[in-house]
Design goal:
The complex is a heterodimer of chains A (319) and B (301).
Chain A lengths: L6 H31 L21 H7 L2 E3 L6 H6 L2 H8 L2 E3 L12 H32 L5 H13 L2 H15 L5 H26 L2 H9 L4 H12 L1 H17 L2 H6 L7 H7 L8 H21 L4 H5 L7
Antiparallel strand pairs in A: 1-2
Chain B lengths: L1 H17 L3 H30 L18 H7 L2 H32 L6 H13 L2 H12 L5 H6 L13 H26 L3 H9 L4 H30 L2 H6 L8 H10 L4 H31 L1
Classes of the chains: A mainly alpha (319), B mainly alpha (301).
């Protein structure tokens, strides 16, 4: 039956489409503002009325990666001409890049924090998803005594506020010298993500028909061979989705990183806010740092779009 | 015939003999994870339970003295701690109700044929995937009384969002609503799209009004999934630390996690903060228990 639409229905539909567009614009506005501020000259970042149209600049990113100091006097024309383009854009903003005695450019704290974030998020994701996949298979295929209680225990470890867990972990890490180390944070994030990974992967494992492995077992595969050659390939999508979720969680995590690290192993989330400090912050540099930091997650969100519902509900809702 | 039977049997028994038994594989797969979680999640909590009965301060080398239940007594009699709980409760209610209204509202709007629906949905989901701490920081600029975009767009002049003690908590909740309404929207959309179309057709034939249709058909059928959204968001809002800590230092916006953080890592009242952590932990476990029971009930359907 072809739906006959009354004119009032069409009007309602049109209003809804306009409303959806408005909502989308409002929701994306803060993210757009971050991205646009990251390409603004400093004097346009905080203006009234806000600057919407401007000539984009790369200087916030140059400043993000280097140590700078205020220029007392403008650089001499020779100095300016001798400087590479990325140094000139900093001169143009009234600052200069700090160099050491040998003329080497001094890096800011950002690149090392970004690297720390990458190392810690990737390693903890591999560990959590690796262990979680095995455990999920175990729960999915074999009878486990007190299975519901064990799964509840596994989940409950994730439900605690991070600060509650962080207090004893801080004391223990201090005792064994793991404070402000990569390994310390990797262990914490692995433990944190492991419960999630077990719950989500169990859902994916439950969906793989048992008959696949049973057929393989009859064909002379061992249980291990069946797991690696039959189950794992079937679970590949689930593993990828779980891994992306774990990565994003570890990448975004703030409270543990704030408490457990201060310099050597500090990740980007506690570092970026610490740049604001006192006085008038340079919001273009903060926006540039934020922009680079958010970029991987934005890309992953698009790749993950069909699994978001499932992941965000701990596998409670499947579609 | 008989020979093939024998070889098949033979092969699978040989494989079984070659490989590990199912029970040992099960143990091999499950026990390391459970051990890992016990060592890094349960053991620390036992460790801090011990400290919660002492006056230990991690900033000094003074040995811890056993004080019995003193910490717990002090905390439960401390009006400041109670006010932290009250602030947290207010925050949870404001932000979860806000997310429900916005999220469900947007889902109702999206639940129709709309050009580029997939793209719009994905774009709307972006805020919740981003780092609360880092994006929250940027809301400081948006809220700024003199050059913030929000005041400019709404024509609010020099309205103080974060520096006003009365407003700060609502400003944090507003940012949280922005971040997490998409989550409620996502769940609601799943619920709405599962409502059978023939129910609406039947209602239309009976000339039921839009309100009747909404309250008698849509809402009851989406309710279970909305309940999941409410439970999830309530737990997360209760735990909130990043956003409120970054956005404001107003005592009127001091959530329980922030109080705990200050007690442990700024005032270094380690023993007392361990006791406080235990009070919070018991509350969370109680909520989690209810929540897991509900999840399992929904899953069975």
């Amino acid at each position: 039956m072809a739906a006959v639409r009354t004119s009032s229905e069409i009007t309602v539909n049109r209003i809804a489409i306009v409303a959806v567009l408005l909502v989308t614009i409002i929701f994306l506005a803060p993210i757009y503002w971050i991205a646009s501020t990251a390409f603004k000259p400093r004097n346009l970042a905080t203006t009234i009325p806000p600057t919407v149209v401007f000539q984009p600049e790369i200087s916030p990113f140059v400043k993000l990666f280097t140590k700078r100091s205020q220029l007392r006097s403008p650089p001499s024309p020779e100095e300016y001409a001798a400087a590479p383009w990325w140094e000139r854009v900093v001169f143009d903003g009234g600052e200069k890049i700090v160099r050491d005695g040998k003329g080497q450019v001094q890096w800011s704290g950002y690149p090392s924090r970004f690297m720390n974030s990458l190392i810690i998020a990737i390693t903890s994701t591999v560990l959590a998803v690796g262990m979680g996949t095995f455990t999920a298979y175990g729960f999915s295929r074999f009878k486990v005594k007190g299975e519901a209680d064990l799964l509840f225990f596994i989940l409950s470890t994730r439900m605690l506020p991070p600060v509650v867990v962080a207090i004893p972990m801080f004391l223990m890490y201090r005792a064994v010298g793991l404070n402000d180390t990569h390994i310390g944070l990797i262990i914490l994030y692995t433990a944190f993500n492991l419960s999630f990974s077990v719950w989500l992967m169990k859902g994916f494992m439950d969906e793989i028909p048992k008959e696949y492995e049973e057929a393989a077992l009859v064909d002379g595969y061992t249980r291990m061979e069946a797991f690696f050659k039959i189950v794992l390939p079937e679970a590949a999508t689930g593993i990828a989705a779980t891994a992306v979720f774990c990565f994003i969680t570890a990448w975004n995590e703030y409270a543990f990183a704030l408490i457990m690290t201060n310099r050597r192993a500090q990740t980007a989330p506690p570092f970026i806010p610490s740049q604001v400090g006192s006085g008038l912050p340079d919001w273009t540099v903060i926006a540039a740092g934020t922009f680079l930091f958010l970029l991987p997650v934005a890309i992953f969100t698009f790749l993950l779009r069909n699994h978001l519902l499932r992941g965000m509900s701990f596998g409670a809702i499947r579609k | 015939m008989a020979t093939t039977m024998i070889t098949t049997l033979d092969r699978s028994t040989r494989a079984a003999a070659r490989g590990l038994s199912d029970i040992s594989i099960r143990n091999l797969f499950i026990i390391p994870t459970v051990l890992f979680l016990i060592v890094f999640n349960i053991f620390p909590l036992i460790y801090s339970l011990g400290y919660s009965f002492t006056d230990f301060r991690a900033s000094t080398n003074a040995p811890a003295n056993f004080v019995g239940l003193q910490n717990y007594r002090d905390l439960l009699n401390d009006p400041y701690v109670w006010s932290n709980f009250a602030i947290t409760a207010k925050y949870v209610i404001v932000s979860v109700v806000g997310q429900l209204l916005v999220g469900f509202g947007v889902a109702m709007l999206l639940n129709r044929d709309i050009p580029l629906k997939g793209l719009i949905t994905t774009l709307l989901l972006l805020p919740m995937m981003l780092s609360m701490a880092v994006v929250g920081l940027f809301w400081k600029l948006l809220y700024d009384p003199s050059w913030g975009v929000i005041n400019y767009a709404l024509g609010l002049g020099n309205f103080e969002w974060l520096a006003d003690p009365k407003m700060a908590l609502y400003a944090v909740a507003l940012t949280d609503i922005w971040m997490w309404s998409p989550f409620v929207m996502l769940l609601s959309l799943a619920g709405l799209s599962a409502v059978p179309k023939h129910l609406y057709e039947a209602a239309a034939i009976d000339r039921a009004g839009p309100f009747y249709t909404f309250f008698r058909i849509t809402l009851p059928l989406v309710a279970p999934i909305l309940m999941i959204a409410i439970i999830f968001r309530t737990m997360e809002a209760f735990k909130t630390f990043d956003l409120a800590y970054i956005l404001t230092s107003q005592p009127t916006a001091e959530l329980i996690s922030i109080r705990l953080y200050k007690m442990a890592f700024q005032e270094w009242q380690t023993g007392r903060s361990c006791a406080m952590a235990y009070i919070v932990l018991i509350m969370v476990l109680a909520i989690t228990n209810i929540y897991v029971k509900y999840l399992n009930k929904v899953k069975e359907r």
